[in-house]
Amino acid sequence: MLAFILRRLAAGIPTLFIIVTLAFFLIRAVPGGPFDLERPLDPAVLENLRRVYGLDQPLGQQYLAYLKALLTGDFGPSFVIKDFSVAEVFARGLPVSMRIGGLALALATLVGVTLGVIAALRQNRPADLAVIGFATLGITVPTFVTAPLFQIVFGLMLAWLPVGGWNDGAVRNLLLPVVTLALPQIAVIARMTRAAMIETLRAHHIRTLRAQGLSQTTIVRHALRGAILPVISYLGPAAAQLLTGSLVVEQIFGLPGVGRYFVEGALNRDYTLVMGTVVLIALFVLVFNLIVDVLYALVDPRVRHD
């Protein structure tokens, strides 16, 4: 297992290098720059800014300088958020995104797996049809629709919860964004769990357990161990996405997370902030995919990584 982990970590280095390279040159290819304003700057001022941030150098030299800084953990200064480096922006925004994303992921996993199991055990019955309908609705309706609806209903009409803001992570401020983030994930996990459970419940070893007279709870526990594997595979990239911030949800609810900063950086051509966010998301995806592979071996004894 240790050898497998080391091999995966080594394989992740060229993958990360390719992602960084593509992102660096693609963002430079987009028209405009971080200092292109509606009211143009004085040419002398613009030239000084470009020199200070190294943008007057050839593109290849900028790329090598960025790689060198990245190896030391330096994401560079933010071009738009004054007096802040990208690392300082992440230090402020990442805990917010991880808290909201972690709660949404836990809620989605718990509710989604539970609904999927219930639907599989009551296949083609009203409970199953209700879960399928909910899952279809959750997948098709995007978060930029559900978030304003929640704000209107629970924030304005009923006045139960605030419509936005962080408020130091108060529970009242967390409920709406967490539920909004979790709903699509609940729908996906419920559908995956249902399909996998139905297939597993028809397997020969489950029929053997039934023939031996074991309780329904024991049978479900054994079936769930095999049916959970597709869900674990899905949770890898889903966790990376949720924990690094949801662009739409953080923007709508006014949360100071990484996703909101990424939107502001992209709109303002903040090269270093966008690049830093891309690197951060890529690292999360690589790490969580590795965790998924390790969990596979722990959940299913048939899976071994030599």
Question: Care to describe what's here?
Answer:
The protein has 306 residues and is mainly alpha-helical. The protein has a domain at 86-299: MetI-like (MetI-like fold), CATH 1.10.3720.10. Helix content is 75%, strand content 0%. It has twelve helices and no strands. Helix 4 (86-121) packs across helix 11 (258-267), helix 5 packs across helix 7 (171-201) and helix 6 crosses helix 7 (171-201). The N and C termini lie close together (6 Å).
Q: Descriptors for this entry?
A:
globular, 75% helix
Which blocks of ≥5 consecutive residues have pLDDT under 50? Answer: none
For this structure, what is the CATH homologous superfamily of the domain at 86-299?
Answer: MetI-like
CATH-derived topology of the domain at 86-299: MetI-like fold
Mean pLDDT figure: 83
Number of strands: 0
The number of helices is 12
* Share of β-strand residues: under 5%
- What is the correct CATH architecture of the domain at 86-299? Orthogonal Bundle
Rg, rounded, reads 24 Å
Q: How do the helices and strands follow one another from N- to C-terminus? A: HHHHHHHHHHHH
Question: Major beta sheet, specifics?
Answer: none
The CATH class of the domain at 86-299 is identified as: Mainly Alpha
For this structure, the quaternary state is single chain
Alpha-carbon distance between the two ends: 6 Å
The helix-and-strand class reads mainly alpha
Proportion of helical residues: over 70%
